[in-house]
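Database export, one record per block. Field names are fixed; values are copied verbatim from the stored entry.
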Amino acid sequence: MQTSSSQVSKEWFKDWFNSPYYHLLYKHRDEQEARLFIDRLLELLQPPPGARILDLACGKGRFSRFLAQKGYLVTGVDIAEDSIAFARRFENENLSFFQHDMRRVFRVNYFDYIFNFFTSFGYFDNDRDHQRTVNNIAIGLRPEGRFVLDFFNTDKVLRTLKPRETKTVDGIAFHIERWVDAEGYILKSIAFEAEGRAHRYVERVKAFTLEDFQRLFGTAGLKIARTFGSYLLEPYDREHSDRLILVGCKSGC
């Protein structure tokens, strides 16, 4: 059953991302593909040893740990308290984690690179908060710093949106509905039964296009230098690409 946007919690991500069922539903995500993506990205960017990297919206820190193993100084931040508590088990001299809301300034003129992976953007109820987040990326980067934002390709998602499906994971049937609201958000209702009771969460992500990102980043004084359409860093194609991966900088790119 579809829910009106007014009934969706403005902070829906806080409850859902802290739920163990979120991690269960999405455990199918291809970690090998993601590691290959990061390897290709590092080959493209060529960060020097000891570069300071911020993993913005790091979840449980899987890829923060992978980056730290490569010899970089990595900081992971996420709004989900439980995810950060888990990630902190792996802290070391090259790796630290903090619970943090990306709408707030974290550090100033500090990072060489800021990464935002796997559609960890567009969750907020208004574009002021989206712009504030991008502004904070600019504030956190050093003058020659670079950023990467990985988002779904909205044009393809809207064209191929699957209204209903059921996914069964570890014996739990997740009943999923998707639709687009009048404010340009893609909503995804996830209903299931577990531990003797019914659960329902609704994700709501703004359907940003390349032009929207150009406006957001331009307003923050950031330049989008390159776009890619897949984790293999293939060229971005509005009609066919699965991803919209943006690579840019504050200056000099």
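Remark 1: The chain has a mean pLDDT of 94.
Remark 2: DSSP finds eight helices and eleven strands in the chain.
End of record.
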